[in-house]
Design a protein that fits this description.
The complex is a heterodimer of chains A (248) and B (306). Chain A is of the alpha/beta class. In chain A, 37% of the residues lie in helices and 27% in strands. Chain A contains nine helices and ten strands. The radius of gyration of chain A is 18 Å and the shape is globular. In chain B, helix 11 packs antiparallel against helix 12 (271-299). Chain B starts with a helix and ends in a 7-residue tail after the last helix.
């Protein structure tokens, strides 16, 4: 299998704060890879650095065989798209769903916009009835579906997911995760998914990386995590914390 | 129209599932309109402005006398009467007719200043706010320089350099009134530039130019409209002030500020000569202020369910 994303010695510095301290990572084409860690461990920053939204100080990022510079070209955005954590903040408040979905098509000069928008809405389980609504007329789950439709409309091969369900309640979470699973299978996408919820990661991902304060702690497969075959203390603590309160 | 059709139209406008771009847009406008018209005072303001527009359009029909030629022999400085509702001035001209025609110049000034100053301010502010860094520093220091001068003094300097006249007054007022708009637009831009929805557009590969023009500017426009409307009264007063100082509209143009200036010589004995245009300025300024307040409530994206 070829590598979809290769990150090597990546450092990200925000105003003298080292958010990432030389992280390396390899995501194979077609797999679903998880990033786990507590708040502030740098997992979202790693995602944003790949997307070009964080200032890279050193290290290299390679996507589908091409090494990325500081400026990304349009072709990159047709390969890589992202779904944000907060569905309430990731949709423009003054634009209808239609406008939101049209924008990427207009930027990349697609001609068959009407058809693509209809198809994208169908794919994420929103009918045409939602097409001319504003963000404030949608629920959290519906918003996240729109965000997924927007990410998919350019037909990328890699999807970056930044805690796509953490702002949703449990039942809606399951719906959105199933939708993502389904889309991945149908389109043979590569996922790089950030979450602090180990259950979601073991459900969604084949391999994962545990991160702590800007560094990689260890690489595991989902099976290893489920069987608690971990080598680092930090991961063990994380596992214990995720099991929650144990009755004595 | 029966009550049923009105009701069904309202339902169509307020539909949660608009079927077309048009319906979504109209529905949104209708919600804003309902919020606006619920505010009585704002409605009064709107009526005043509509009245001003109608009067300006129909001045030729409504005015009983010529605004520029008076009867010097028989009708100088007459008190208000049935024949001359607002009296006459020192050249025997009917003041009512002059005020009706003067509304055209008031509108001319207000509209021209708004369409020159607001886009400049919007552009400078959004570009500075989105670009940040050096661009921001340079644009904002220029804005600061303009803001450091008292408005009327700067306008006076410009008119003195350009020469008196209503066009130059408009230009001078426009040049002095854009900096607050730039400030507002920049502040709004700073609050949205790091939001996820702008990041999402960046991730689609949109150029900075496209992001500013199509995604950031629409968010700044409503607060800008409110501010411009509230400033209209100030613009009218500045224009009147320039007219009063003899640097704005030149006689015999029936501009309200100029009329007050020419009436000040007899303000104690023939108060109506200066009083009538002063009252007109008061009413129109009040109208714009009330309208602006109402628009702030109706358009503010942070209020209600927008």
């Amino acid at each position: 299998m070829t590598a979809a994303i290769t990150v090597d010695g990546l450092e990200v510095i925000f105003d003298r704060f080292r958010a990432l301290k030389g992280v390396s990572l390899e995501v194979r084409s077609g797999e679903s890879f998880g990033l786990v860690g507590e708040s502030g461990s740098g997992k979202s920053t790693l995602l944003r650095a790949i997307a070009g939204l964080a200032p890279v100080a050193s290290g290299s990022i390679n996507v589908n065989g091409k090494t990325l510079g500081t400026r990304r070209d349009k072709a990159f955005y047709r390969e890589v798209q992202m779904v944000f954590q907060d569905p309430y903040g990731s949709l423009h408040p003054r634009q209808t769903v239609d406008r939101l979905l049209q924008e990427p098509l207009a930027i990349h000069g697609f001609a068959d916009g009407e058809k693509r928008i209809e198809r994208a809405l169908d794919e994420v389980g929103l009918g045409n009835g939602f097409r001319f609504r504003y963000a404030h007329q949608l629920s959290g789950g519906q918003r996240q579906r729109v965000a997924i439709a927007r990410a998919l409309i350019l037909e990328p091969s890699i999807l970056l997911l930044d805690e796509p369900t953490s702002a949703l309640d449990a039942s809606v979470q399951a719906e959105v995760l199933n939708l993502l699973e389904e889309v991945r299978r149908r389109r043979k996408l590569t996922f790089l998914m950030v979450s602090h919820d180990l259950a979601i990661i073991t459900h969604m991902c084949e391999r994962l990386m545990v991160m702590q304060s800007g560094e990689a702690v260890e690489n595991l497969t989902a099976a290893q995590l489920v069987a608690h075959r971990v080598t680092e203390d930090y991961t063990r603590n994380l596992l214990r914390a995720s099991e929650g309160f144990v009755r004595a | 129209m029966s009550a049923d059709t009105i009701q069904s139209r309202r339902d169509w406008l307020l539909s949660e599932r608009p079927a077309s771009r048009m319906q979504a847009r109209l529905g949104r406008a209708y919600v804003a309109w309902r919020r606006f018209s619920a505010n009585r005072l704002a409605f009064v303001g709107l009526l005043i402005i509509i009245a001003l527009l109608v009067i300006a359009a129909l001045a030729g029909v409504l005015a009983p006398y010529s605004p520029t030629f008076g009867d010097l022999k028989n009708s100088r400085l007459l008190a208000p009467s049935a024949e001359h509702w607002f009296g006459t001035d020192d050249l025997g001209r009917d003041i009512l007719s002059r005020i009706l025609y003067g509304s055209r110049w008031t509108l001319y000034v207000v509209i021209l200043v708004a369409i020159i100053a607001a886009p400049i301010g919007l552009l400078v502010g959004t570009v500075a706010g989105y670009a940040g860094g050096w661009t921001d520093a340079i644009l904002m220091r220029i804005t600061d320089i303009f803001l450091a001068f008292p408005k009327l003094v700067l306008a006076l300097a410009f008119v003195a350099a350009l020469g008196p006249g209503i066009e130059n007054a408009v230009l001078a007022i426009a040049i002095t009134s854009w900096p607050p708009y730039a400030r507002i637009a920049r502040a709004e831009t700073l609050t949205v530039r790091n939001s996820d929805y702008i990041k999402a557009v960046q991730l689609m590969g949109a150029s900075p130019f496209r992001i500013v023009l199509r995604h950031i500017m629409p968010l700044c426009i409503s607060s800008l409209i409110v501010r411009v409307t509230l400033d209209m009264a100030g613009i009218i007063l500045t224009a009147a002030g320039l007219g009063f100082l003899g640097l704005g509209a030149q006689p015999p143009l029936p501009e309200w500020g100029t009329m007050i200036a020419s009436g000040r010589r007899f303000i104690l004995d023939q108060w109506w000569v200066a009083g009538a245009p002063g009252f007109a300025i008061l009413i129109v300024s009040l109208g714009f202020n009330l309208l602006g307040d109402g628009l702030r409530d109706a358009l503010d994206p942070r209020s209600g369910d927008q």
